[in-house]
Design a protein that fits this description.
Largest sheet: none
Structural class: mainly alpha
Number of helices: 5
Distance between the termini: 28 Å
Helix content: 55-70%
Strand content: under 5%
Shape: globular
Oligomer: single chain
Length: about 110
């Protein structure tokens, strides 16, 4: 599946969401494209969107509530443990994801 097709089928974090459902889809897409702790999307245009969609509602709730970067980082690290993954060997990568997500949220 070409990447253009995937982009058209799944809202991106660059889209300006107009509703909570759009926000949830955008957060899910963000987690797929930027966080992806199990590596399903690494260089693949064929992976179906939504691998981390179950985490989007809680993160979105936290974003609406004004979550801090530290709390969001803790949430992502907890999600890794729920997946049975060890903590990220590079905590800086998770911090970069949190920073990007909060920047997107502030400007959407």
């Amino acid at each position: 599946m070409p990447s253009a097709h995937r982009a058209a089928a799944t809202p991106t974090v660059d889209a300006v969401p107009g509703s909570q459902r759009d926000d949830e889809r955008a957060v899910s897409d963000f987690l797929d494209r930027k966080w992806d702790p199990i590596g399903i999307y690494d260089g693949s245009d064929d992976a179906p969107p939504g691998e981390y969609a179950s985490y989007a509602p809680v993160i979105l709730h936290d974003l609406y509530a004004g979550v801090s970067a530290d709390d969001l980082l803790r949430h992502l690290r907890h999600a890794r443990s729920l997946m049975g993954l060890e903590e990220a060997p590079d905590l800086g990568r998770d911090r970069d994801v949190v920073r990007a997500l909060l920047e997107w949220w502030a400007t959407r």
